[in-house]
Task: inverse folding
């Protein structure tokens, strides 16, 4: 993939991810004044994930962690700038990275486990396990990435 093709793919990915983030932000009734920041968080987060996978050759789980971390830092910055909770930006920004396909495949293969044929059931169990673990790792990456700025920058004093 040439540099021009990579940039074009990233811009297209960022555009559609921003649209998805905007849709979820509107669904969650975020204030209109922060809608563009929600779009930016979704676009940048998914573009970072795509960049990590396409250019740096990462698998989807660590690439999602990188993208979610970008969303988390953007949400932290936007929360201070707009004086609203960071969840307004991080939730809608992370939604485009949710592993819907992997979760769907996990459920389909789990249903196939009930098949009467032992060989098919064993393969379905293996496929369900692989997709389930992949789903869990991606969701963990999203959770850790979104929480990273709070863990790094917000110091809570211990109760004495």
Result:
């Amino acid at each position: 993939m040439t540099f021009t093709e990579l940039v074009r793919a990233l811009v297209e990915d960022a555009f559609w991810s921003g649209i998805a983030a905007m849709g979820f932000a509107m669904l969650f009734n975020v204030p209109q004044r922060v809608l563009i920041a929600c779009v930016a968080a979704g676009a940048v987060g998914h573009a970072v994930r795509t960049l990590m996978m396409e250019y740096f050759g990462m698998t989807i789980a660590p690439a999602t962690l990188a993208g979610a971390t970008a969303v988390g830092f953007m949400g932290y910055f936007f929360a201070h700038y707009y004086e609203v909770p960071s969840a307004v930006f991080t939730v809608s920004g992370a939604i485009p990275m949710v592993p819907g396909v992997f979760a769907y495949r996990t459920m389909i293969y789990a249903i196939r486990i009930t098949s009467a044929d032992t060989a098919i059931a064993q393969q379905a169990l293996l496929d369900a396990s692989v997709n389930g673990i992949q789903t869990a790792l991606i969701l963990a990456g999203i959770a850790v990435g979104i929480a990273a700025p709070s863990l790094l920058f917000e110091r809570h004093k211990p109760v004495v």
